[in-house]
Amino acid sequence: MTSVQSYHERLRTLSEASVHIHFDAFTDIDWDHPDFAIDPADPRWVLPAADPLGGHPWYQEQPLEVRTRIGLWRYANIVKVGMQFENVLIRGVMDYLFSLRNQDPEFRYLTHEVTEECHHTQMFQEFVNRAGADVPGGRRSFRVLSRFLPLAGSLIPESFFTGVLAGEEPIDHLQKAILRSGDEIHPLMRRLMQIHVAEEARHISFAHEFLRVKVPGYGRARRGALSVAFPVIMRVLGDVIVVPDRKTAETIGVPHWVIKDIFWKSPDGEKMLRDLFSDVRMLAEDIGLMNRASRRVWKALRIDGRPSRHRGEPAPHAA
Q: Rounded to an integer, what distance in angstroms lies between the CA atom of residue 169 and that of residue 39?
């Protein structure tokens, strides 16, 4: 079986999985159930230690009501960023799909993915609305650029799907760490994370397979350009997803020095930054995007390190 045939078979498997296992934002979440009610004073909004801010000594030393207020705001803002990012993803994928030829199996899988992402945007915005937090989501520069980023879907698809991974991998990493930690979190947030992790596994798998099949066939110049752009896209979009901007931090009362320490000045912050990209380092190695020039960029951006041995390897062993 050729690599293209294997790729098409993989797409068929992902498409069938999307048919048999999928979620609806207003069918699979009982928003009005008493257990899912959002009380801003509920201590279950306190951030777990697996969250970068939740694990910082400054946060842990704050009174319970302060930790609760900050926790709900941070959850809401991350969810809002996720909604904005997936909105860009949907528009970019549809731009990519517009010119696909008949019989191309990418069309069926990617329309499944777009459908799922639409449900995610509904799910995320509903949470933000019910939380009552007027959060901005991504930093202003990202919100402005979001008008143009979807054009990369058809113009430079390898960069676009690299950007997809740059947004999906860090949030997936953090959500899995929180779910694995066993810490008590609000049941509504736990349900959102469970749904998101379950479906994002397919989306991340596709982006990996897309780049794994397409990139080796590109010319030397195109691969060289992507090898250098790859870590830059990862770092820039990863920060958009994970790091609250200064104005947002000030709004919820988190000192700027705390944000700087967490993202990514402290030893724990530096390790977390590298951990977020261990899977994509593995992908870059596998598809020939690690070379002398690109390794320097990975190192300069402080996201270098040993790649994962397999996708989804827990962070302590993948650092």
A: 30
DSSP codes, 173-219: HHHHHHHHH-----HHHHHHHHHHHHHHHHHHHHHHHHHHHHGGGS-
State the burial class of residue 51 (Cβ atoms within 10 Å of its Cβ: 0-12, 13-18, 19+).
buried
How many Å is the Cα radius of gyration of the chain? 19
Opening angle at CA 66, ends 255 and 238, nearest 5: 50
Answer for the pair 82, 242: CB distance below 8 angstroms, yes or no.
no
pLDDT in tens, the chain (319 residues): 678 889 999 999 999 999 998 999 999 999 999 999 999 999 999 999 999 999 999 999 999 999 999 999 999 999 999 999 999 999 999 999 999 999 999 999 999 999 999 999 999 999 999 999 899 999 999 999 999 999 999 999 999 999 999 999 999 989 999 999 888 999 999 999 999 999 999 999 999 999 999 999 999 999 999 999 999 999 999 999 999 888 889 888 999 999 999 999 889 899 999 999 999 999 999 999 999 999 999 999 999 999 988 877 776 544 3
HSE on the CB side for 291, CA within 13 Å?
13
Classify residue 311 by its DSSP letter.
Answer: T
* Residue 305 CB neighbours (<10 A): 18
